[in-house]
């Protein structure tokens, strides 16, 4: 299994990692430590199997001239019956286009026709905590809603990750966006 993720500028990444650490220190969520070297991100696509060399070649073509895009997180959300808490970005034209252009250009790789990351199913989000009890979800929500105001950042890179092995999600290839 593979994922295509959008990565943030250093300041935004560190702010979200700080929140992950604080939730761990308060014994609310251990999400940050569940995956080695986890990075804050927004998932754009998922794939069961890939021809890596073809996919990477397409990443070079698609993202070669893609500019960095601004992102703003001002919403906290949860998926129903999931125990997940996330920051949701404002869905701007640039974010929609980045996502839809990916799916247009990578359509031949789509081997998961019911993926939650396809354009008509996608709910963009950056996970803050996962698999929480109702009590811990409430604690995490209350903490995060008081911890920070809107987060202004940038998507500066896209990366292909391998999520085949539990506890690991190494970056196989990444492409920095134009500044």
Write the layout of secondary structure elements.
Blueprint: E1 2-8, H1 10-25, E2 41-47, H2 52-63, E3 69-77, E4 85-89, H3 93-105, E5 126-129, H4 134-147, E6 151-162, E7 171-176
Antiparallel strand pairs: 1-2, 1-6, 3-4, 3-6, 4-5, 6-7
Short description:
By secondary structure, this protein is α+β, with helices and mostly antiparallel strands.
Overview of this protein structure:
There is one protein chain. The protein is α+β, with helices and mostly antiparallel strands. The chain has one domain (2-176): Cyclic phosphodiesterase (Cyclic Phosphodiesterase, Chain: A, Alpha-Beta Complex). Helix content is 31%, strand content 28%. It has helices spanning 10-25, 52-63, 93-105, 134-147, and strands at 2-8, 41-47, 69-77, 85-89, 126-129, 151-162, 171-176. Strands 1, 2, 3, 4, 5, 6 and 7 form a seven-stranded antiparallel sheet that branches. The longest helix is centred in the first third of the chain and has 16 residues, at 10-25.
């Amino acid at each position: 299994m593979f994922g295509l993720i959008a990565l943030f500028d250093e300041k935004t990444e560190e702010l979200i990692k700080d929140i992950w650490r604080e939730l761990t220190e308060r014994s609310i969520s251990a999400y940050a430590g569940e995956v080695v070297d986890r990075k804050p991100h927004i998932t754009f696509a998922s794939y069961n199997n890939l021809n890596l060399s073809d996919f990477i070649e397409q990443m070079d073509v698609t993202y070669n001239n893609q500019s960095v895009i601004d992102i703003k997180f001002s919403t906290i959300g949860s998926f129903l019956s999931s125990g997940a808490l996330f920051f949701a970005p404002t869905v701007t034209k640039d974010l929609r286009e980045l996502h839809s252009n990916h799916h247009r250009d990578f359509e031949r790789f789509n081997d998961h026709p019911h993926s939650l990351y396809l354009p008509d199913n996608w709910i963009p989000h950056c996970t803050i905590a996962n698999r929480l009890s109702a009590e811990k979800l409430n604690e995490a929500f209350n903490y995060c809603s008081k911890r920070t105001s809107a987060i202004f950042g940038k998507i500066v890179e896209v990366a292909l990750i391998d999520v085949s092995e539990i506890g690991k999600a190494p970056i196989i290839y990444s492409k920095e966006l134009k500044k």
